[in-house]
From TrEMBL:
InterPro entries xrefs: YcaO-like_dom (IPR003776)
Pfam families: YcaO (PF02624)
Sequence ranges assigned to domain YcaO in this UniProt record: 1-151
The name this protein goes by in its record: YcaO domain-containing protein
Protein's organism: Streptomyces aurantiacus JA 4570
């Protein structure tokens, strides 16, 4: 999936006949393999969440067998090789501080301000952070759904 910064970003959609609902996930990282792994992991986690019924915001029609038949989602693009998909991504860092400086610079150039990090960690072994970037809007450079491309 393209984006204005050129950071590798993938979206994965999982679907099967036994539970015919589209489960999606996305992931971004400067290493394309990690970005793809995140997208696949998130899509799998979404599917497992639907299967186990642990969310109350999943429409009940998903679980009602025989009441509604979902169609397989259309392909959004033709398959490409891994080397073709990852060729544009050449930015790599061997130092996390340099990587963060570069990413913060992209945000600064877009918004005029530095992103803020809030550390929500409760233990040394488990890190949780929230990153806030004022005036950074979400927009896609390409249509997410094929029907949007036609309009």
């Amino acid at each position: 999936m393209t984006n204005r910064w050129g950071v590798p970003c993938f979206v994965a959609h999982l679907w099967s006949d036994d539970l015919p609902v589209v489960c999606s996930g996305s992931g971004a990282h400067l290493d394309p393999a990690i970005a793809l792994s995140r997208a696949l992991s998130e899509a799998a986690q979404t599917r497992l969440t639907v299967i186990t019924g642990t969310r109350d915001d999943v429409d009940e029609v998903v679980y009602a067998t025989g009441r509604r038949r979902f169609e397989a989602p259309p392909k959004t693009s033709d398959p490409v090789s891994w080397s073709t998909a990852t060729a544009p991504f050449t930015t790599a860092f061997d130092d996390i501080d340099r990587e963060l400086d570069w990413l913060c610079g992209l945000v600064r150039d877009e918004t005029g301000g530095e992103p803020a990090l809030v550390d929500l960690s409760t233990a040394a072994d488990f890190s949780v952070v929230k990153v806030l970037a004022e005036h950074l809007d979400f927009r896609l450079d390409i249509p997410f759904y094929p029907e949007e491309a036609a309009s």
